[in-house]
Amino acid sequence: MGGIEPHELDDHQLLRELETIHRTRHDTLLHGSPAALAAHNNRMAALEGEYLRRHPDRAVAYGRTRDGARERPK
Protein backbone atom coordinates (compact mmCIF):
# COMPACT_ATOMS: atom_id res chain seq x y z
CA MET A 1 0.00 0.00 0.00
CA GLY A 2 1.26 3.50 -0.74
CA GLY A 3 1.50 6.38 1.66
CA ILE A 4 2.14 6.57 5.37
CA GLU A 5 0.46 3.87 7.42
CA PRO A 6 -2.82 5.27 8.76
CA HIS A 7 -1.94 4.53 12.39
CA GLU A 8 1.16 6.74 11.99
CA LEU A 9 -0.86 9.81 10.94
CA ASP A 10 -1.96 12.38 13.49
CA ASP A 11 -5.65 13.31 13.52
CA HIS A 12 -5.21 16.31 11.21
CA GLN A 13 -3.21 14.29 8.68
CA LEU A 14 -5.73 11.44 8.80
CA LEU A 15 -8.63 13.77 8.06
CA ARG A 16 -6.69 15.42 5.23
CA GLU A 17 -5.94 12.00 3.70
CA LEU A 18 -9.61 11.00 4.00
CA GLU A 19 -10.75 14.22 2.33
CA THR A 20 -8.32 13.68 -0.53
CA ILE A 21 -9.21 10.05 -1.12
CA HIS A 22 -12.94 10.77 -1.08
CA ARG A 23 -12.46 13.68 -3.49
CA THR A 24 -10.55 11.48 -5.97
CA ARG A 25 -12.80 8.43 -5.64
CA HIS A 26 -15.15 9.13 -8.52
CA ASP A 27 -12.39 9.81 -11.03
CA THR A 28 -10.51 6.68 -9.95
CA LEU A 29 -13.66 4.57 -10.31
CA LEU A 30 -14.45 5.91 -13.78
CA HIS A 31 -10.97 6.19 -15.25
CA GLY A 32 -8.42 4.34 -13.11
CA SER A 33 -6.78 1.10 -14.13
CA PRO A 34 -7.81 -2.04 -12.24
CA ALA A 35 -4.58 -1.77 -10.22
CA ALA A 36 -5.25 1.89 -9.39
CA LEU A 37 -8.80 1.09 -8.28
CA ALA A 38 -7.59 -1.79 -6.12
CA ALA A 39 -4.96 0.43 -4.50
CA HIS A 40 -7.57 3.14 -3.95
CA ASN A 41 -9.95 0.62 -2.36
CA ASN A 42 -7.25 -0.67 -0.03
CA ARG A 43 -6.05 2.77 1.00
CA MET A 44 -9.58 4.07 1.55
CA ALA A 45 -10.50 1.06 3.69
CA ALA A 46 -7.34 1.44 5.77
CA LEU A 47 -7.90 5.17 6.33
CA GLU A 48 -11.58 4.76 7.14
CA GLY A 49 -10.83 1.84 9.44
CA GLU A 50 -8.29 3.93 11.34
CA TYR A 51 -10.75 6.80 11.66
CA LEU A 52 -13.42 4.46 13.04
CA ARG A 53 -10.93 2.88 15.43
CA ARG A 54 -10.07 6.31 16.82
CA HIS A 55 -13.68 7.54 16.93
CA PRO A 56 -15.93 4.59 17.84
CA ASP A 57 -18.46 6.93 19.46
CA ARG A 58 -18.68 9.44 16.63
CA ALA A 59 -21.98 11.23 16.21
CA VAL A 60 -24.36 9.46 13.85
CA ALA A 61 -27.02 11.55 12.14
CA TYR A 62 -30.46 10.01 12.55
CA GLY A 63 -31.18 10.60 8.86
CA ARG A 64 -28.23 8.32 8.02
CA THR A 65 -29.75 5.36 9.91
CA ARG A 66 -32.16 2.83 8.49
CA ASP A 67 -35.07 4.18 10.56
CA GLY A 68 -34.25 7.77 9.65
CA ALA A 69 -34.05 6.93 5.96
CA ARG A 70 -37.44 5.24 6.10
CA GLU A 71 -38.99 8.45 7.44
CA ARG A 72 -37.81 10.56 4.49
CA PRO A 73 -40.58 11.75 2.22
CA LYS A 74 -40.81 9.70 -0.94
How far is it from the N-terminal to the C-terminal residue, by CA?
Answer: 42 Å
Strand content: under 5%
Low-confidence stretches at least 5 residues in length (pLDDT < 50)?
none
Shape: flat
* Averaged pLDDT: 94
Indicate how many domains the architecture comprises: 1
How many H/I helices?
3
Radius of gyration: 15 Å
**Class per helix and strand makeup:** mainly alpha
What can be said about the biggest beta sheet?
A: none
Helix percent band: 55-70%
Helix-strand string: HHH
Count of β-strands? 0
Descriptive report:
The protein starts with 10 loop residues before the first helix and ends with a helix. With 74 residues, the chain is mainly alpha-helical. It has one domain. It is flat and about 40 Å long. It is built from three helices and no strands. The longest helix is centred in the N-terminal third of the chain and has 21 residues, at 11-31. The mean pLDDT is 94. It has helices at residues 11-31, 34-54, 66-70.
